[in-house]
Design brief:
The chain is mainly alpha-helical. It contains 20 helices and no strands.
Length: 374
Amino acid sequence: MKNRKKVWMLAVGMGLVLLSGCGGEKQKIYEQAEEDLENGSYAYALEGYAASVANGVHLPESYRGAGLASLRLGDYEGAIEQFTNALNCEKVSKALSRDILLYRASAEQKAGLYEDAMADCQTLAQDYSMDADSYYLTGKVALALDSYDEAATNFEQAYGENATYDMAIQIYEAYLEKDMEADGTRYLEAALTTEPKKAEDYCDRGRVYYYMEDYESAREELIQAANEDSTEALLLLGTVYLAQNDISNARSMYQEYVSKEGASAKGYNGLALCDIAEGNYSGALTNIADGLPTAETEDMQNLLFNEIVAYEKQLDFSTALQKTREYLEFFPDDTAAAKELAFLKSRVENTQASAEDTGTDQQENTEDSSETAE
């Protein structure tokens, strides 16, 4: 978070310098920020939008862009602030207001501010038209608030508006997070009634079967997708093979993915998982280091968490503890990491206590030996 704030302040400084520039230059800065956002260069996009805000260029859109960049970087509070700034601008069109409100609700949901997120979802329902995405988000927020009937109603609306494999998987994952797998499985089953027509469909069906733990069916669908040149299917095949403890084939899939896609955070993370499964923790750390430079938020989270696992498996508890603390600065809502932090603290404390006891025993033994010699 601190680093992102520094980037923001630096960018504002850049923008103030650019205030004296001509209008054409200011417009180019905004357009470059748009391009960076589209290309996934979120830190650069954030700098560009900050400069555009300072320059007074397309203020609602610039604040929105800064919010999106912050959201993609995992800075949810920063995203909420920028979306709020956008909504407070003058002359914001209704379509843009709806778009920004939906993104702010998403950021609030990710930040654990469920009441605020629900308030925005209710505003969306009252003042704007609802679509599959807004119904889904409302359902997910309602689920977080333990409003199960409201969640079910909104999920049904979401799937009714967009009866796709992807929507079925999203709803299933939302239920899975609440340990309500059975409620989500029916959406997976419904999605499988759709006939596949292209590689993407086979890939999605493979993912559905994977969630249902029907690994053989998942493998068949994904092989079909891979035969139709789907590189995503290679990643998913690696995941399926890992679930079957077939490390050799899993590694082959991830290696093929990296060879086709180039330096890939997802591919290197898969290779790191193979290394961990085989007990090659130094190899895992190497693959994680190779994957981090190209990682976006979700991939970075996976890589950094697996880095903690690798150090822990090496019994390097102090480094694992340090890495967990750093991880939680970026991903404070990760409950699994919070539990890991408590575990590692106890291991480090026990290790230190054992070392102190050993030192005391050695000192006593030395003193006893001295007394005997006398």
